[in-house]
Amino acid sequence: xxxxxxxxxxxxxxxxxxxxxxxxxxxxxxxxxxxxxxxxxxxxxxxxxxxxxxxxxxxxxxxxxxxxxxxxxxxxxxxxxxxxxxxxxxxxxxxxxxxxxxxxxxxxxxxxxxxxxxxxxxxxxxxxxxxxxxxxxxxxxxxxxxxxxxxxxxxxxxxxxxxxxxxxxxxxxxxxxxxxxxxxxxxxxxxxxxxxxxxxxxxxxxxxxxxxxxxxxxxxxxxxxxxxxxxxxxxxxxxxxxxxxxxxxxxxxxxxxxxxxxxxxxxxxxxxxxxxxxxxxxxxxxxxxxxxxxxxxxxxxxxxx
Amino acid sequence: xxxxxxxxxxxxxxxxxxxxxxxxxxxxxxxxxxxxxxxxxxxxxxxxxxxxxxxxxxxxxxxxxxxxxxxxxxxxxxxxxxxxxxxxxxxxxxxxxxxxxxxxxxxxxxxxxxxxxxxxxxxxxxxxxxxxxxxxxxxxxxxxxxxxxxxxxxxxxxxxxxxxxxxxxxxxxxxxxxxxxxxxxxxxxxxxxxxxxxxxxxxxxxxxxxxxxxxxxxxxxxxxxxxxxxxxxxxxxxxxxxxxxxxxxxxxxxxxxxxxxxxxxxxxxxxxxxxxxxxxxxxxxxxxxxxxxxxxxxxxxxxxxxxxxxxxxxxxxxxx
Lengths: 305, 320
Known about the structure:
The structure holds two protein chains of two kinds. Chain A is mainly α. Helix content of chain A is 67%, strand content 1%. Chain A has helices spanning 13-16, 21-35, 42-57, 61-88, 97-118, 124-130, 132-137, 143-149, 158-173, 180-205, 208-211, 215-228, 238-246, 255-262, 278-298, and strands at 91-92, 95-96. In chain A, strand 1 (91-92) and strand 2 (95-96) form a beta hairpin. Chain A is globular. Helices cover 35% and strands 31% of the residues of chain B. Chain B has helices at 55-63, 84-88, 107-117, 122-136, 151-163, 181-198, 209-215, 233-239, 282-292, 305-319; strands spanning 4-18, 24-39, 44-48, 70-75, 91-95, 169-173, 201-206, 218-223, 226-231, 243-250, 263-268, 271-277, 295-301. The mean pLDDT of chain B is 87.
């Protein structure tokens, strides 16, 4: 080890920073033990940060309400499109209005929930570029939770403000015999769909570890994909449905389970077992998202100083 | 056992460069090569080197942000890349060029959030916050959003943020960059006090050699990813074959003074500058000049640390 500099004098910094090893050791025992306390879990970190950002966003209530209204308007337009289509036709690929409302309601609710919870993850590239991702990495809390919660704004609730009422109306209008299985299927499919969207959102966000600040791909695939699932997939044709089943499995968001709830045959003749595959697909995608995230962190290159 | 231990650490990046319309060439860039050093508990070490030398890469490997390509890193007994979050509770980091605080939140809220993220007990949080607020004069700023703070105020906020959880080690990446003289002095005094009173081990990277001269007993110089020097300031001066200078004011302009062991490097009217190796004793030289020439005044200049380091950098880039 280096020797103390052989300098002397009242203004000498070496003297200023000196001190005996003995007093140091005494001082160190106190703080160090407690500094090793277990870090908070990811969910806890997330909820804590979300609470804080929600409180912060209420400091500008007008701005918050306006932004929420904007989100509401955007999703309402999607639904208005469906109503306009049904002004000209009684059914779409064999689905009546109530059936399409059910598809819209489940897809939009799940997308709204996923977007509310972790929509901010698509800012990964920006955080990497600005170096703020480094800051998250040096804190003893889940970086993913911090990223998802950073600048959380309750305005995203606006997206749910159309989706939930539409879903509720659809459930009352649909000509379905509500047995136990079908009653259970609705919350399960919304839950699985939320996980599918969230997992895809994370998987596509992690491409920014390599591709830099480029949320466009993510938005095209996931946000664009969520728009597709607002309609019966049968209208897109066999090839598109094949892609949405086996490549980007958005068919499991609502199409497959809806076939079960509505008691309809699969227009493409796919096995009936797929109708119950959504929770499994959700879990597999969640596992893939976790792997993608870990791999991203492991190969993270940071930015120059 | 050393607190920080690096042995044979390499960090390489693969860079893809466009060479044609579609063709890309892969090129491996070595940011840090075969780096080994240790730092003991309670040390205050300067880690200096030119831009792109590998300083930040080293600090990022020590905090677990970057995974080393080869070699072994241990900080407080942990492997930073694998145990990043566990280690994070024991280290504090200050990035001079960016804040670890939340831009839109008042300082107080940022601190409170960190208290929860680091699970600091309320009593310890209170005690630490009171102490830092007092030392760094942050009292009037606690209600101010970070974006409204001046650079110097923000740095004081960042220092507090990095130390609320009583880290064992504090890494500072250019903590005085862009600060005015008063703020620099405040930051340096604070760091010296933390090191002395709490025994906090401090590793600081800097371009400001005043930081080094005023704070650090040990200096590590890194260049081209390799450790070029590791020792104290006196040794650094000797290592770079630094020279001291005798500034002689003669009574009248004269031809360059001729003395064995010294050489005139500059003449300006009656004033002449004589350089001689730092380890040569100055007294005999002064006596010799006084004896042979009519002298009005004489002054001795120590080698400037900036010159010393510049010499060292130049030397290593010649080797490279």
